Amino acid sequence: MHLPSVTANGKGRARRAAKGRTAEAVARAGFVGRGVIYLLIGALALRIAFSDGGGRQADRGGAVAELADRPFGNILLWLLGIALAGMALWRLSEALFGQAGPDGHKPGKRALSGARFLFYVFVSYSVLAYAAGDEGSGSGASDRQTKDVTAKVLDWPAGQWLVAAAGIGVIIAGVWIAGRALMRKFHKRLRLSEMPRRMRQLTDVLGIAGGVARGTVFAVAGGFALTAALQHEPGEAKGMDNTLRSFTETGFGPWLLALIAVGLVAFGLFSWVNARWRRV
Asked: Where does the sequence pass through the membrane (predicted)?
């Protein structure tokens, strides 16, 4: 057998495995895991809006610490970390073989899946590390990491420009996320024809509210990064917890944070809708 045909057969088997039932189950488990994270972050943000949050911070580490305190918490953390690792593997398969849908093989789509793969590798690692006893990835980790990374980059040659570019990129990403949610772009990723009418209506509410809230948080976090670059002050950069807390410093007081928190809970529920109805 010629080497090109062997290579082609190997690629074909890998592609079929990436689109098979096991890969589908892994992807759906990943959406369940993502939903858990956002539900907990939203609940923590809602608690912070009207109290001190019970010592927890509304970021990924705070969500992980909250889950760890539940009955069988360590087992739940391992399951969550494995589910998010599954999400990472599914995103990798999309980067290698293309997303579902007619335009899924476009280079831009595959590059975006590659970026998501790296993100979920980091998230799953941080959850599994906490489950294994590394509490450095716990509550408040996002704020510490954001400030530490920003401080290091600002010390590089042209570091101020790099941080500014990153901040602008995150702002654009936030606007893009919110805009796509408002335009209901998620429709093309879901098996809408198989969903009951009320489920479709609920999905629209969750998808729009969740996407707008998530996009808003991204855009505001990007604004803080841009401010840190312009002022050459790494302390101005904020992780998710401090970004969310900043909403209480507006003229709306805690109510704006409460609204964002409800939106993040909606996005968590929307992730569970994806776990059931998304085309993968």
From this structure: 25-50, 75-93, 114-133, 161-183, 204-232, 252-273
| Contact yes or no for 228/220 (Cβ under 8 A) | no
Contact 268, 35 (CB under 8 A): yes
**Helices 197-231 and 141-154: angle between axes, nearest 10 degrees:** 40
Question: Tell me, what DSSP letter sits at residue 59?
Answer: S
Picking from 59, 68, 81, the residue whose alpha carbon sits closest to that of residue 140 is 59
Q: How big is the chain by its Cα radius of gyration, in Å? A: 20
Total H helices, total E strands in the chain: 10, 0
Q: What is the pLDDT along the chain (280 residues), one digit of tens a residue?
A: 454 544 445 455 555 555 567 888 989 999 999 999 999 999 989 888 887 655 667 777 788 888 888 888 889 999 999 999 999 999 998 888 887 766 767 888 899 889 989 989 988 988 888 888 876 655 556 677 788 888 888 888 888 999 999 999 999 999 999 999 999 999 999 999 999 999 999 999 999 999 999 999 999 999 999 999 998 888 888 888 788 888 888 888 889 999 999 999 999 999 999 999 998 7
Q: Which of 85, 77, 86, 95 lies closest to 15 in space, CA to CA? A: 95
Using CA atoms of 34, 137, 260, 166 in order, give the dihedral in degrees to the nearest 10: -90
Q: How far out from the chain centre does Cα 121 lie?
A: 11
